[in-house]
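Reading group handout, session on sequence-to-structure problems. Before we discuss, look at one worked example. The prompt was deliberately terse, the way you'd type it at a terminal:

> structure Monooxygenase flavin-binding family protein

The input record follows.
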Amino acid sequence: MAENNNPASAATVHDTFIVGAGISGIAAAIKLKQEGYHDFLIIEQSDRVGGTWRENTYPGCGCDVPSSLYSYSFALSSKWSRLFAKQPEILRYLEDVSDHFQITPLIEFNTALENARWDDSRHLWVLDTTRGQYLAKTVIFATGPITEAQIPALPGLDGFQGEMFHSAKWNHDYDLTGKRVAVIGTGASAIQFVPEIQPKVKELFVFQRTAPWVLPKPDLPLGNMSKLAIEKLPAIQRGWRKAVASSLNVINFGLRNPGVLKPVSAAARQLLKLQIRDARLRKAVTPDFTLGCKRILFANNYYPALQADNTTLIPHGLVAVENNTVIAANGERHEVDVIIWGTGFDVSHPPIGKKVFNANGDRISDLWKNSSPEAFLGTSLANTPNAFLVLGPNVLVYDSFIGLAEAQLDYIIDGLKKVRAQGISKFSIKPDVLKQHNDKVQKHLQTTVFNSGGCKSYYLDANGRNFAAWPWSLATLKKRLKTFPVEAYDVVYAQPETLRAAS
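And the output record:
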């Protein structure tokens, strides 16, 4: 990968500073270039682009949104080998897009953000990084919510003598062949890697605190003829993408109207009778909440792996470790060689909050410590001027993260254009606008399946507040994000009124 070796200099003030070169950061840079913006800089703490698709390399890692939709609207690909792409292909796609649009040479790799502070006297962001200090008029925080691997603090864990790692930090150097393995968690990552490791391990103990809904995955390989047809006839791909989007809209309608999902839940329970032969195991993997309350998972090989002779499902959480013995909540004990954490990520508080200080000098994560994160349209934080957050609080819709990021970037780019055209030097979301928006969001979330479906999911934080989901349709979200409403912000103009009018 190309790397910009120019030393950081605080003497230069950049128009825009982008933190992160994952799916959001790459798209932000491309859209800025397309709008004629060239005075921007991107930093990335790793040595290559890709974000979560660079970091997660566990066996079987892939996307549960079809490739046709999990791709940029401006960079459709005919190279996907399957309807649902695996991690290596997605990472390669992101690298190819970054290279094709000549974004890669603009990125300062191996550069991590340490602190970002708003200087109100100059209306500038002061950004301290591992390569020095930068100044910028505006900042786009594109670090994403799925970055902080979560491992619970359990009694005796420090005394475990075997191998231990999180799925997001997979140890490919360690051979699992013939080992006794405990997998903690049955979320989106675990249902992908469990079938991959099951055939090679001696014993596999899967700790399941809550049974998830796992539906069949309509995945198929795409042969050379299919890929050639998609390449030669772009209308096929556009139609494919539209069909996938329409099907996800149907799911989203059900999530907003839980009653619609009851027949689907009943059908899924009947399907379990065909998938799981053993009545006791079938009961253990049958969810006790409405479909959609927790993230819906898709897999064809997970239930067969659970029924293998060397697999034991433990329908309880892990509560302690004693030497090399793992202990379940029901007292069940098993000696293992390896613990693999499939416990997901700390998504309730965007990790970037630990490094950002608002206009009062308060660290964002400290403000969120005893409360829930809030933003206006998932993008603008309270008292945090001239800054945008991508994939922030309460914009989650069952759709492609890439599509959500693009929608937010339409809002951000429109905002930057208006800031430039109107000579605005400082803009900050109005407190009353932020409050009214979030009060309305929380009110309408109460009737969605996330809040009323009878489960405790990562959509709800420690306060029991839904910090993640958007309560309305994707079309409504995209409409709200189409334009940047200057009137919703407190603004300070750099130019006199007459000059501003002339601009």
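Points for discussion. First: The domain at 157-220+244-341 is CATH 3.50.50.60 (FAD/NAD(P)-binding domain). Second: Confidence is low (pLDDT under 50) at residues 1-9, 497-503.
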